[in-house]
Structures are given as C-alpha cells and as structure tokens.
Amino acid sequence: MKEDLEMGEELMQHLRSRATELLLREEWNESVQAYSDFISLCQHHISHTHQRPDLDHLLKLQKSLCLALSNRAEARSRLRDLDNALQDCDAALEIEGTHFKTLLCKGKILLSLNRYSLALDCFKAALLDPQAGLKCEALNGFLERCKQLEHQSRTGVFDLSDWVVNGFRGKFPELAEYIGPVEIRKSEIRGRGLFATRNVDAGTSVLATKAIATERCILPDQNEELADNIQLVMWKNFIDKVVESASKCKRLHHLLSVLSNGEDEDVLEVPDVNLFRAETEEESALSMGKPDMDKILSTLDVNSLVEDAASAKVLGKNSDYYGVGLWILPAFINHSCSPNARRLHVGDHVIVHASRDIKAGEEITFAYFDVLSPWRKRTSMSKIWGFQCNCKRCKFEEQICSKMEMQEIQMGLERGLNMGDAVYRLEEGMRRWMVRGDEKGYLRASFWVAYSEAYESDHKTVRRWGRRIPAAEAVVDSVSKAVGSDERVLKAFMAGLKRRCGGGSGLVEMERAMKLARGVYGKVMKKQAMRTLIELGNQE
User: Could you tell me the pTM of the whole model?
Assistant: First the structure.
C-alpha cells in the first residue's frame, strides 16, 4: 500500500512538472490535457485520503489541486474556452477562497466577458492578499480598467479624443459593452426591431458592443473575379470563427439562436433586452447542443454587417480594409429610408448613436443603402436586399413621383439638365404641391446630387435664380432633420461655410457644424477631435 502511494506521488509529480512546462511554453491544448490528467489523479488521491485521514497530506493535495485548477483555467482562457475556465476558477476558490492567482485569473476572464462589477470584486479581493505586493502595479492597472469600463457601461459615455487627435496611432481604445435606453419589440417594418424607451438627442450613444467575430481583407479594385474569390475565402473564415466561438460559449450559442434566420419572422419570440447584458446572464439555465450549420449560415446571411456601409464610419487602420462581422444587438436594427441612427466602427467594437433626434417609442433604424438617392433607385436597392421598403418617406415619394413634373425633372437630369435648373423646378413644384416639413427634406435628400452640385458650382446658377433657390444651410438643415446626418451633407455645409467666410467662421456657424458632426460621428469626442474628423472628411 505504501509502495502504491509512493508510485502515485511520483506520477503526480511527473504530471505536474510536465503540465507546468507546457504552460510556460504556451502550448495551451497540451497543457490543458496534462493538467486534466493531474487533476483526476489528485482528486482520486484526495478521495482515498478521506478514507484514511491524514490532515497534513490532505491539505497538501488540496493545495496542489487548487493550483492545478487555476493553471488549467489560465490555459483554457488563452484558448477562449471561457465557460470551462470560469468553472475551474470557481472549483479552485471552493478549496481556497482567497487564492491570489485564481482571483487574478477569474478577474481577467470576467473582464474579457464584459462582467465588470464581478471582475472588480475579484481584483479587490486579490489586492488584500500578501502576494498582491509583488504584482501591485499590474493589479492596480486591472482595477482602473474595470472602473473605467464599468463607468462606460453604465453611462454610455465614451471619449475617443486622444486617439483621434493623435492620428489613430497605437492600439484601438478599449470600449465597454453598453445598452442604453432601448428595448426589442415587434416592428411594423419587419419582424422585430430596436426601439427607444425615451427621447434621444442626435449624437447620443444608444448601444456599444464588440463583434462575436470579424474578418477583414483588402479587395483588389481592378480584378472583379479575384475580389469575388477573396470574399468567398473571407466568408468561410468568418463562419469558422463564429462556429468556434459558439461551440465554446453557452451564452453565445443561446444568443445566436435568438437571432432571425430569415424565416417566419412575424412569429419569432421577442426577447427581453436584458438577455444581452453580460452582468445579468444565467448560464446555468442555458443548454448547448452541437451548432446547426444550416441555421448558422442562414443566421449570418441575415444578420452580418459590412463595416464600410451607408450608415457606418470606420475609424483607424481598419478603414483600409473590407470587413464583415456579427454584432448581436445591432442585428435587430431594421432599415428605413429616413433612418435615425448611424454606427461608428472602432476596432472590433461598434457604437450605435442617434443621427438625428429620436422620440420615445420610435424605432431605431439604419440606412442599409444610400438614402441620398431618388425613390426609384432606392426601390431597386431594396429588392437587391430582399425586401420592399414601406417607410413613411417611400410611401410619400411613390405618390409624388407619379406627377408628370417630377418625372420630367428626373428625365431632365438623366439627359444633362443643369443642376440649378433642376433644383429650381423641384422647389417651385414643392411650393405648388404644398410640400412641407420632413416631406420637403425627403425630396431634397432624393435629389441631393443636384443640390450639392448646384451649390458647389461657380454660383452663376444660384445667383440666376436668386431667392427662388433656398440657401444651402436651409437645405442641409431640412435633409439632416428628415434623414439624419450624413458625411456628404456635413461636407457640403463646411464647403459653403468656407466659401462665405473664407478661412474663418463664427461661433454660431461652427456650433451648427458640430451638431451635424455629432449626428455623423456621435458624441464620443471633444471639439478639437471633432474638428480633426471634419477636416479629414473634407479631404476625402
């Protein structure tokens, strides 16, 4: 019996040394297997020690088991197997509730899962351990990160100023998960949608989240066939990333199942938005089977977002790439030709903000395609996307475009009609038809190309028609109010400002420019950084 015990001790020592070596060499899969073998043997010895009590030996085994569980958690976290890594941490802390290494490991895992308050508790508990003195600087760094991210997740206040002013150099800013005043409800547009629960000012963030997976590449401009092949490879890699992530996380597996796969959208259950809050998850109640590839493919086809889209702005080095990703909650946002939201891409994060003022109860919408274009073109685009847009703007323009004068203006533009003449004829038509408010903004947005080119001309056309053509500022205001802020509208406003005021501008004019810019980029930076972005936009 003594010989068996000694042989067992030798085997345990060998497995522990081997597992530690693999961990130090960052061979994570092999390390997990080695620690699993050691843990099984250690648990076997502990069960036998309970039968023949030897307190010192039992404490030694439990200490070894605690450390092994902590190290396996570390290896699993590097493999992004976070569910099992957390289980290892909890098992280790059941043995020794103040184990420094485990508290540190668990805190880092919770931080990566965006569970900031729980992570903060772990780091604070680790700080009380005598070992904390050796890693005090790193631990305090984690504490500060947690506090900053927890504040962001609670308030939705982000500040990208330093990163923008420094020319997007260095790492992407670290952003928290944030769910603002929104809820999911049945949508009159299609299926389910995201709705504001209170009034939201233009530029205010309504949510921020990190992608489940992304894939990016540089597409060749001249070779369409090569570009198509690259996109196919890119799509396969993207699918593989999503499947791998879903197979390792019960929560993600469940959230994917909540998304639409394009079928029977009207009968889909409406989830509570709290389901998407990391801090309130109940993983014990979640089940996880094998991922259904057919369903995942159709889900990704319906819900994936392209980064460089009509309603999006990509900041930093990723702007040089063609990128696709899956962001769970933004996937609920439907299209409208009078959208009220835009998104800002920062690394793998997306921040969704109001592009114009949103009223409580109003559905939050994106532009899936260019809405500064005529009704017929938008109708063709919606068919490509697989739906028919029945928004308020499309219904109005469908009626107004049946008028012979509207058809003549459109045909005239196609045949080279002077842009100023087209603007004059449209404005005169709107006066006769008693078009007011947002409806006037809708038509001006539809003929934005004519308006922008007329105002960018040498002013002969504008002077020719005098007050019968509205000032550029009035057009910009009505368009941005009707269909939200857009970089092209902001650029036209700044160009007009430069023509009128030369190099300088008054406080009132700059405040109007800032308001437009907040609708385009969101309230995520100070004025100096916003001016930097405006200048970059003018150069594009």
Answer: 0.91
